[in-house]
């Protein structure tokens, strides 16, 4: 029986031809990298540096797409549209808050999936 998870982590592992333990290491790095980018985004939003926020959002979008964490990817697409169309700080702040929540939920699910398989990724 598989651990319930919105993300097809086993399929991702199979697609790469890697054992689950090696895939867990990749996801451990994924979690750290996204966390660092989100921390930067929070600081950049305060300074209202739209260009840097676009770069950070682009990085998160690419990483989440590569790892097939689609809800994170979809939220970065929404942020990209806001950055291109209006740069409304309140909207951006709200969308970034949603991105943080999506990230935290993803981390919990990914961690639980690997824990179910006896692998600690923290």
TrEMBL record:
Residue numbers of Phosphohistidine PTMs: 58
Residue span, HPt domain: 19-113
GO biological process, one term: phosphorelay signal transduction system
Record PROSITE patterns: HPT (PS50894)
Keywords: Phosphoprotein
InterPro entries: HPT_dom_sf, Sig_transdc_His_kin_Hpt_dom
Coiled coil: none
Keyword Phosphoprotein in annotation: yes
Top-rank taxon, per record: Bacteria
Name recorded for this polypeptide: HPt domain-containing protein
Top-level taxonomy: Bacteria, Bacillati, Bacillota, Clostridia, Eubacteriales
């Amino acid at each position: 029986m598989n651990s319930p998870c919105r993300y097809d982590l086993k399929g991702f592992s199979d697609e790469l031809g890697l054992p689950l333990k090696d895939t867990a290491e990749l996801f451990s790095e994924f979690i750290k990298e996204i966390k660092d980018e989100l921390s930067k985004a929070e600081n950049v939003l305060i300074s209202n540096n739209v260009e840097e926020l676009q770069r950070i959002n682009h990085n998160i979008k690419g990483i989440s797409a590569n790892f097939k964490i689609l809800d994170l990817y979809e939220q970065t697409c929404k942020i990209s549209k806001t950055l291109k169309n209006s740069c409304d700080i309140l909207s951006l702040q709200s969308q970034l808050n949603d991105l943080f929540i999506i990230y935290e939920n993803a981390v919990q699910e990914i961690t639980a999936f690997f824990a179910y398989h006896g692998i600690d990724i923290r």
